[in-house]
């Protein structure tokens, strides 16, 4: 349980870093928008992304701090994160999501070859990047275990 308490404290620090990066990102995008266009709407999607990131970070900081002070919530989070059934469900869902994503990218790449070569190339690069990350992570965990 003490390891999980340390993990929550480490996560709080990580979320504070993410909060700072998000705040700087929002300020930078808004400033750049005003300087270049004079209109805020030109980069509203990027600003919204940083705002959601900021909100989620603050939510998890509050949740983790509350869990560190409330023993009942702490035990609930500990069980939720360490339950083998939940871990197995997450692993199976991740594997299925990976396979569906790669199949979707490859099918999209094939279809867009006839429509637009640029989109087909981008999808192929995305699929290659996902495969490289997957193989790297698999190699890492095979070596680690």
Count every beta strand, where a strand is a DSSP E run of 2 or more residues: 0
Rounded mean pLDDT score = 89
Q: Whole-Å distance between the termini?
A: 23 Å
Structural class: mainly alpha
Describe what this molecule looks like in 3D.
This protein has 145 residues and is mainly alpha-helical. It folds into 2 domains: 1-82; 84-145. It is built from 5 helices and no strands. Helix 2 (44-69) crosses helix 3 and helix 4 (84-115) runs antiparallel to helix 5 (117-144). It starts with a helix and ends with a helix. The mean pLDDT is 89.
Features:
single chain, 145 residues, mainly alpha, 2 domains, 5 helices, 0% strand
Show the helix and strand layout.
Blueprint: H1 2-36, H2 44-69, H3 71-82, H4 84-115, H5 117-144
Outline:
The chain has five helices and no strands. It has helices at 2-36, 44-69, 71-82, 84-115, 117-144. It is flat.
């Amino acid at each position: 349980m003490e390891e999980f308490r340390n993990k929550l404290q480490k996560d709080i620090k990580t979320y504070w870093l993410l909060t700072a990066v998000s705040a700087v990102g929002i300020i930078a995008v808004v400033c750049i928008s005003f300087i270049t266009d004079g209109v805020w709407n030109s980069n509203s999607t990027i600003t919204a992304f940083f705002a959601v990131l900021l909100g989620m970070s603050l939510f998890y900081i509050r949740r983790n701090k509350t869990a560190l002070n409330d023993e009942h919530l702490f035990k609930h989070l500990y069980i939720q994160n360490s339950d083998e059934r939940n871990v197995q469900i997450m692993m199976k869902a991740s594997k299925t999501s990976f396979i569906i994503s790669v199949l979707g990218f490859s099918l999209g790449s094939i279809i867009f070859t006839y429509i637009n070569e640029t989109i087909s190339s981008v999808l192929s690069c995305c699929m290659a990047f996902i495969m490289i990350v997957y193989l790297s992570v698999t190699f890492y965990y095979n070596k680690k275990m």
